[in-house]
């Protein structure tokens, strides 16, 4: 999502596909030194967001705060779990990214899928993941 606003991120990513880890890190760190954007890149990681996944007041706060920060010129993205109960018809331009993010938990590697879209003008990333959390007494 952020790379749509700033093509330097996309260009750096594409240029680094065949490079080693050190070269990739150096390339991306250079981007942080020459920022021309005045606003901040803000990511809210939440469990709900109005109107698509709302149980209490948190969903309203996340959506309202995201809109207010965007009006101030900041790049705002909301990250939510991809619940089965989300009202997907309210998300515009919903699509799965052609990337799999792996996470490591409790000795196992999990593959996660990322979906992106927009809700009422606020960028949204949904993470679909399969994890088993074991509770021990």
Describe the 3D structure.
This protein has 137 residues and is an alpha/beta fold. The protein has four helices and five strands; from the N terminus they run αααβαββββ. It has helices at residues 2-5, 7-15, 21-33, 58-71, and strands at 41-45, 75-81, 92-105, 108-119, 122-128. A five-stranded mixed beta sheet has the order 1-2-5-4-3. α2 packs antiparallel against α3 (21-33). It is globular, with a radius of gyration of 17 Å.
- Spatially, the strands of the biggest sheet line up as 1-2-5-4-3
Percent helix, as a range, is 25-40%
Radius of gyration: 17 Å
The tally of strands reads 5
Topology overview:
Blueprint: H1 2-5, H2 7-15, H3 21-33, E1 41-45, H4 58-71, E2 75-81, E3 92-105, E4 108-119, E5 122-128
Parallel strand pairs: 1-2, 2-5
Antiparallel strand pairs: 3-4, 4-5
Helix pairs in contact: 2-3
Question: Which labels suit this protein?
Answer:
alpha/beta, five-stranded mixed β-sheet, 4 helices, 137 residues
Quick summary of this structure?
The protein is of the alpha/beta class and 137 residues long. It is built from 4 helices and 5 strands; from the N terminus they run H-H-H-E-H-E-E-E-E.
